[in-house]
Design goal:
The chain is of the alpha/beta class. It contains 10 helices and 14 strands.
């Protein structure tokens, strides 16, 4: 990869699974009280020093928040925008895009749909570029993809049908394990994962750099075929976005629910030679602090069972941007 410029810019807009999970007023208050107590105990009295003190002591996830929006991640280069899923995180992404050429119409995005469970499509009607004459290319392996999106906009569920939007919507039925070209030297391909109703992971590549979205998938004990296919699909990725919704114990109890754990993500990423692993699709019942602990346990497990592995493991948070 060239050093002077990134090949891709990846931004996390929604990182929660299952249902939007905004912090409650009491949860925000508890964070403020905890941070304030730390400032007092440290004897920081200069207001100008508070921010630097907290940033040195805590991660952004600890003193800020993981985020409450559901699945949406963007991958961008030059004049190309690729989006993984249309959970509620697609709303702030749309607002950002409308600050640029999308506000005048004539721009284009590619939406790669992993599956059509609510938490992965419920933000679509609030995607601001729909309200200008832009082009929205919606790619997916599932049959009747257009019918699924239209169903969400039926009068029983939403007051605005798809036909009302000024944007042009192109629904593209794609095939698994086939490479599709994108502008600017990019491409994408899909692989079937293990999830109720079927889910598909995506690999986006450009000039030797690759990003994989592998949310909503379970890796069952004894399913060596799936494990082998998964490792091959993940092989050498620069960034793997991985479903770590459950703890190891919870994953065992909720067999066939279609989700995985951070520990499994570490194992697969290391076997596949992945460079960066983003823990993703966070359980809505887990607090920010609990998710921090999941990350710490994953890092501890990596150091214990894979000493010397160069894998960079982190928890995905809203607003996090990574240049590859």
């Amino acid at each position: 990869m060239e050093n002077q410029a990134s090949q891709m810019s990846v931004t996390f807009w929604g990182v929660r699974g299952s249902i939007p999970t905004p912090l409650t007023p009491l949860e925000i208050e508890a964070k403020v009280i905890e941070m304030s107590s730390e400032v007092v105990r440290a004897g920081v009295t200069n207001p100008d020093e508070v921010a630097s003190f907290l940033r040195n002591k805590y991660t952004l996830m600890e003193c800020g928040t993981v985020g409450g929006n559901t699945t949406c991640v963007s991958v961008e280069w030059e004049d190309t925008t690729v989006i993984f899923d249309a959970g509620t995180g697609i709303r702030p992404l749309g607002k950002k895009l409308m600050k640029g050429p999308f506000s005048n119409g004539g721009s284009e995005v590619h939406l790669l749909v992993t599956h059509t469970h609510w938490d992965h499509i419920m933000g679509f009607p609030y995607f601001a570029p729909l309200f200008q004459r832009n082009t929205i290319n919606i790619h997916g392996v599932h049959p009747n993809l257009e019918d699924r999106f239209r169903g969400q906009q039926k009068p029983e569920y939403y007051p605005v049908p798809l036909e009302i939007f000024p944007a042009t919507l192109n629904f593209d039925q794609i095939e698994e394990n086939k490479k599709y070209e994108l502008k600017g030297g990019g491409s994408f391909s899909a692989m079937k994962l293990h999830h109720p109703g079927d889910c598909f992971g995506y690999r986006v590549e450009r000039n030797g750099v690759s990003v994989i979205m592998a949310t909503d998938s379970e890796y069952k004990r004894g399913d060596d075929g799936l494990i082998a296919r998964t490792i091959e699909f993940f092989k050498g990725a620069d960034l793997l976005i991985f479903d770590s919704q459950y703890t190891v114990e919870e994953a065992l109890l909720k067999e066939d629910w279609g989700h995985s754990s951070a520990i499994m993500g570490v194992r697969l990423a290391i076997e596949a030679g992945v460079k960066k692993l983003a823990l993703f699709h966070h359980e809505p019942n887990y607090s920010d602090k609990f998710i921090c602990n999941i990350l710490k346990k994953a890092l501890s497990d990596k150091d214990k069972h894979h000493p010397g592995a160069s894998l960079d493991v982190f928890a995905a948070t809203e607003g996090l941007q990574i240049d590859l």
